[in-house]
Automatic annotation (TrEMBL):
Keywords tagged on the record: Hydrolase, Membrane, Transmembrane, Transmembrane helix
Gene Ontology molecular function, alphabetical: hydrolase activity
Coiled coil: none
Official protein name in the record: Hydrolase
Bilayer-crossing regions: 57-75, 87-104, 124-148
Pfam families: YdjM
Highest taxon listed in the record's lineage: Bacteria
PANTHER family: HYPOTHETICAL MEMBRANE SPANNING PROTEIN, MEMBRANE-BOUND METAL-DEPENDENT HYDROLASE
C-alpha cells in the first residue's frame, strides 16, 4: 500500500492498543512503526530485477518483524518511564504496529515475502488496490481525531473497525466476481488455468480478470453491478516462444519466481541490439504496465544475459481519459469497455464483437 495508508494504519493500531495509556504518543509511535518496513525502498541492489523482487523482502518478514517487536517490547518494559504497562501490552503494541504493514501489503497484487527467509513465493491475496481512499480515510480521520482531542483510542478504534469492514466487503465483492466467472471458464475449459482477479484502481467494485492460457492470456472486466451479464474475454499474445530463453537466465528465473506465470516476453531493438524483455502483466493495466525489464541480448543468434538489467519506462501512462472510462464501467456492462483499445495491435489476438 501507499506510504500514507501505512502511516495511518500504524498510527491507528498503536492508538487501539495503547492509546488509553499513552494518548497521542501511542498514535505517533505507531505511525513511525507503520512506515518502518518500507525503508527498504532506499536499498539499491544494483540491478532493476533485484530491486523490484527484493522489495517487500526481509523488512516485511513476519519472522523479522515479530523478533524486532519483541526486542522493542523488552526494552520498553525495562527502561520506559511508564512502569504500569506490562510486557505483553508492549509486545502487542510493537508487533501489531509492525506486522499489520506487510499483512496489508499481502492483500495487494505486488507480492510480499511474509515468510522470508523461507524459500517460498511472495504472498499475494489481492482484494484491494495499492491506493484506495475508502480504506485510508477512516484510518486517517481516526488518527486526526486522536491527535486533536488527546483521546488516543476512540478515533483510531472506529477507523480500524470501518477499514476492516471495507476489507470484508472487498472479499465479498471478489467472491461475487469469481462466482460469475466460473461458468464462463468452465465453458472454455479454463477452470484450472492460472487466474488473477484483482481490483481496478481506487475501488473494489470493478475487477480485472487475467487468465493464462498457454501462449495467450485473456482479460476481462467484471463489475459487481453487472448482474446476469456474462463476462467476455479479450485474448492477447504473451510471447511465450521467448520464455525458454528468458528462463535460461538467472534474472528470468527470479522474475518467474516473483510474478510467474503472469509475464509477457518480447524481443525489441534497443540501442541497435535485439533485446529480450519481460513485462509483469499483473501490475498496472493492459496497455499501461509499468514494469518491463531487460534480460538478455542476442549475439550471433544466441541470447546472452545482460550484465545489469534495466527497467524500461512504458511508452504511455494511464491518463484521465482511461481512468474515466474505468469509472464509467463500474456502473455496469454498458457502455462496454475493451482493454484492447489501450494495447498495441501486435499483442491483440482476438476481441469480442462488442469491441
Amino acid at each position: 500500500m501507499d506510504s500514507l495508508t501505512q502511516v495511518a494504519l500504524g498510527a491507528a493500531v498503536g492508538g487501539v492498543v495503547l492509546g488509553r495509556r499513552l494518548g497521542r504518543k501511542a498514535v505517533l509511535i505507531g505511525a513511525a512503526l507503520g512506515t518502518l518496513p518500507d525503508l527498504d525502498v532506499f536499498l539499491d541492489y544494483g540491478d532493476a530485477v533485484a530491486n523490484i523482487t527484493e522489495h517487500r523482502g526481509f523488512t516485511h518478514s513476519l519472522f523479522v518483524l515479530t523478533g524486532l517487536g519483541t526486542l522493542m517490547a523488552a526494552l520498553s518494559a525495562r527502561f520506559s518511564p511508564t512502569r504500569d504497562i506490562a510486557f505483553h501490552h508492549w509486545w502487542l503494541f510493537f508487533v501489531l504496529c509492525l506486522t499489520t504493514h506487510p499483512i496489508l501489503d499481502a492483500l495487494t497484487t505486488y507480492g510480499t515475502q511474509l515468510w522470508w527467509p523461507l524459500d517460498v513465493a511472495p504472498s499475494a491475496w489481492p482484494i484491494i488496490f495499492i491506493i484506495d481512499p475508502l480504506f485510508t480515510l477512516p484510518l486517517a480521520i481516526g488518527v486526526v481525531v486522536a491527535l486533536a482531542t488527546g483521546n488516543g483510542r476512540r478515533g483510531p478504534a472506529w477507523g480500524v473497525a470501518l477499514s476492516s469492514t471495507y476489507l470484508v466487503f472487498a472479499m465479498g465483492a471478489k467472491g461475487l466476481v469469481e462466482t460469475r466467472l466460473e461458468p464462463v471458464l468452465a465453458d472454455r475449459g479454463l477452470l484450472d488455468a492460472p487466474r488473477l482477479v484483482q481490483p481496478t484502481p481506487f475501488n473494489t467494485l470493478l475487477w480485472r480478470v487475467t487468465i493464462l492460457d498457454g501462449e495467450h492470456h485473456h482479460e476481462t472486466l467484471v463489475s459487481v453491478f453487472d448482474g446476469g451479464t456474462r463476462p467476455v474475454f479479450e485474448t492477447f499474445d504473451r510471447g511465450a516462444e521467448l520464455e525458454p530463453a528468458a528462463l535460461a537466465s538467472e534474472r528470468g528465473q527470479r522474475l518467474d519466481w516473483f510474478a510467474g506465470p503472469f509475464l509477457r516476453y518480447e524481443a525489441r531493438e534497443i540501442e541497435g541490439r535485439e533485446t529480450l524483455i519481460a513485462t509483469d502483466l499483473r501490475l498496472g493495466f493492459p496497455g499501461f504496465h509499468p514494469f518491463s525489464f531487460t534480460l538478455a541480448v542476442r549475439d550471433d543468434g544466441d541470447w546472452r544475459p545482460v550484465e545489469t538489467s534495466e527497467i524500461l519506462h512504458p511508452h504511455s501512462r494511464a491518463d484521465l481519459d482511461a481512468l474515466g472510462q474505468l469509472g464509467s464501467r463500474i456502473l455496469g456492462p454498458e457502455p462496454a469497455l475493451c482493454t484492447s483499445g489501450f494495447v498495441a495491435d501486435r499483442w491483440v489476438v482476438d476481441v469480442p464483437a462488442q469491441c
